[in-house]
């Protein structure tokens, strides 16, 4: 992992995944000028391991549940470009917006990327991991077939804003506001992070692979530092927000119960 989140340390309880198809690399830009990449890690350190892993997790479009969802289409198309050797970046971030592990993509948004990262995060730990991903429903059915043990160690959720593009039954099973363990997180930290990283695509696609690796790693380190500095203030305002919401919801629930002549016992609370 990259710079350690001071709150999560090495066992994040919630991670968000997403793919960015803008951060490509052109074959014609080459691999290196003869020099090794300066940064061997920390963000892209599992790339080699992933290449072995991916062979067993070939893309399976039939595992997609919400066929009307855009990421599902991405899964099936948008992956073939003979001029590119890297078709994007697949990334993960903790709930405090600290970048974690990243992979260069060489095919579409194959579920192998998310399955691999999940396996990495769950290595040597017994606590469950909560994963938010815009196609978490597809990942769930994929792992159910391929790796049920891994699935049993995760809580999967579709981020708040993405969930509206899914079917109603999917929203009820995976929508972040309906599942446990995500609190008031919106699961969209990774999208905010992409908006920071996206402008690098114009130069990184023209660099050698090694220079691109160094540039992206340093950008990730900068973002990490910036996020760490803000953690204290962010947690304080989130606590305040949670307290206010609690008061507001309790008030509305009381009004509703009074109106229906019920009490907390009747609704099993
Ligand atoms: Zn964290
Ligand atoms: Zn779905």
Fold and architecture overview:
It holds the Pfam family KDZ. It contains ten helices and seven strands. Helix content is about 45%, strand content about 15%. The mean pLDDT is about 85. The strands form two sheets. The chain has a five-stranded mixed β-sheet with strand order 5-4-1-6-7, sandwiched between helices. The chain has a two-stranded antiparallel ribbon with strand order 2-3. The protein is α/β, with parallel strands linked by helices. The protein has helices at about 45-55, 70-75, 110-120, 135-145, 150, 160-165, 170-175, 190-195, 200-205, 210-260, and strands spanning about 15-20, 25, 85, 90-95, 100-105, 130, 155. The chain has one domain (about 15-235). The structure holds zinc ion (2 copies). One zinc ion binds near residues 8, 94 and 95.
Topology:
Elements: E1 14-20, E2 25-26, H1 47-54, H2 70-76, E3 84-86, E4 88-94, E5 99-105, H3 111-122, E6 129-132, H4 136-146, H5 148-152, E7 154-157, H6 160-163, H7 168-174, H8 189-197, H9 201-204, H10 209-259
Parallel strand pairs: 1-6, 6-7
Antiparallel strand pairs: 1-4, 2-3, 4-5
Bound molecules: zinc ion (2 copies).
InterPro entries: KDZ
Pfam family, one: KDZ
Total strands: 7
Query: What order do the helices and strands follow?
Result: EEHHEEEHEHHEHHHHH
What number is the mean pLDDT?
Answer: 86
Distinct bound molecules: zinc ion
Shape: elongated
